[in-house]
## 1
Amino acid sequence: MSPKHPEALGGPGGYSVVYKGAESKEDHWIWQAWSVDETFNSHWAELMAIAEALNMAILRLSLKPTTRTAEIYLFTDSLRSLDFLMKKSSEAAKQSRRTTFFEHAGRPVRSFIARISRELHNLGVKLTLSHIPGHKHGVTGHIIADRTAHNVMVDRMEALQAPSKDQAPDSAVPNSLPSDLSLPKRRYIDDKVATRSSQHNPICF
């Protein structure tokens, strides 16, 4: 079930993880969501949401045999969230491509995500943040734990953001991602998709 975004809060709502199930069919993607409580501080809750979602992604990557470097994509419509959650450290990036956090982030949460970042590095996983203007699904962000899901998610978001002209004015646009993103065949990231991705201001660590 999709986590709902409380409009009055102006906070995170939740993050989701999309990953390819190890025993699932070629065209079957599994979606899990982690929602935050609106009583929490917005910044702290958002940090916890991304920490838990990254943790789930790492668990899936650890259990899933892979023969190539995986990539995790985080999509969000909140520039404030990106500014608060992460900043690119040129020194750390040169050494281990790890992510650093602002000093005012809560110490326990910051330490937890620091461990996650180290685990990502140990797994050879690349983390990419992308700002998607107007991205409204009832969740603030999506973390994709498989690089082959990247263009699938971009296509899905574009379709939801630009409904067809013949669609009824009062027809509801889905506010959540289905747990099964069925496709005719699996597609891989290529130059065309990479160009499209750059239009969404990706930030790589």
## 2
Amino acid sequence: MNQENFAYQGPIEYDVLTLQDKHRSQKIWNGEIYATETRLIVQRHDYDLWQHLKNNPLHTRILNYFDYTSFRGVLEVGNFP
């Protein structure tokens, strides 16, 4: 297998960013921005979800599905900054 074809570093769906004239991901894919020049700021919007789960634990039947899919650890770790 050709190493260049192993992992495509561009977007799979270009129409995801069509509402924006410019997006910095394009510069990253083109090699114009490097990690030493900028930082990626990720916004989290799941705080309310974790607070809800803390105050309203999931039923055992639901937790069994998390066990079955090996995602129980995600619930156990929970929210962290």
